[in-house]
Design goal:
eight-stranded mixed β-sheet; alpha+beta; L,D-transpeptidase catalytic domain-like; 232 residues; 21% strand; disordered N terminus; disordered C terminus
């Protein structure tokens, strides 16, 4: 009986890995400017959250902070269809860097962005208009998001014109701020239990993130990642 149970578990794990790989290929095809490795890590992190008892989601947002802020580096995917719904600019924290981010923090008052997987919560209206609450799922890396008031919101300083004329967009206080014109539709798509994944090739985070090291699926992807290009 134990052998049957073990075999069934291994088959389930294999099927999950195959399904994730297939979905990753579909998302990568829908977003040719995204790094397929980053998409895979985002899916692995989401799968990790589900394995730990959190609900699945219909949508997944991926931020690649290794790209300059003048480039669009936020992708929002519909996981059922594999479609790319939004491809946008997104700000990083002012103490993470100027046009290119390189420093990340989980500390209150750091004014820096944080890395890892977030689960979205509710919507509220603040001084920046509509905003989306985020709960960080990576202990030590982003789990103080609520305490730090890290939310997704619209901001005037996130614009294509600024990116084109100054070579970068503006800087937030650590929030993943987006263009005001798209803030409401993106937030409405991501609210209430979706996932957002913020990536940068930071060696410590890649090796220590709880969201990337909770199952054979995520471990396989993480350990096969090319660490030659990660930050020290």
């Amino acid at each position: 009986m134990n052998q049957i149970v073990i075999a069934a578990a291994l088959l389930s794990l294999t099927n999950t890995a195959a399904a994730t790989d297939t979905l990753a290929a579909r998302l990568a095809a829908a977003a040719p400017t995204a790094d397929p490795n980053v998409i895979q890590l985002a899916l692995d992190a989401r799968e990790c959250a589900i394995e730990r008892g959190l609900p699945a989601s219909d949508h997944l947002a991926v931020i690649d902070y290794s790209k300059p802020s003048a480039q669009r580096r936020l992708w929002v995917f519909d996981l059922a269809s594999g479609a790319l719904e939004f491809f946008e600019w997104v700000a990083h924290g002012r103490n993470s860097g100027d046009g290119i981010a390189h420093m990340f923090s989980n500390h209150d008052g750091s004014l820096a962005s944080s890395l890892g997987l977030y689960r979205t919560a509710g919507v509220f209206y603040g001084k920046e208009g509509i905003a989306l609450q985020l709960d960080g799922l990576d202990p030590g890396f982003n789990d103080r998001a609520r305490e730090r008031a890290i939310v997704m919101h619209g901001a005037w300083y996130v614009s294509e014109e600024l990116a084109r004329t100054t070579g970068r967009i503006g800087l937030s206080w650590g929030c993943p701020a987006v263009r005001t014109a798209v803030a409401k539709p993106i937030i409405n798509r991501l609210k209430d239990g979706q996932y957002l994944f913020a990536y940068y090739p930071d060696r410590n985070w890649l090796h220590s993130s709880a969201s990337l090291h909770c199952s054979a699926v995520s471990m396989n992807s993480t350990t096969s990642f090319n660490f030659a290009n990660v930050a020290p």
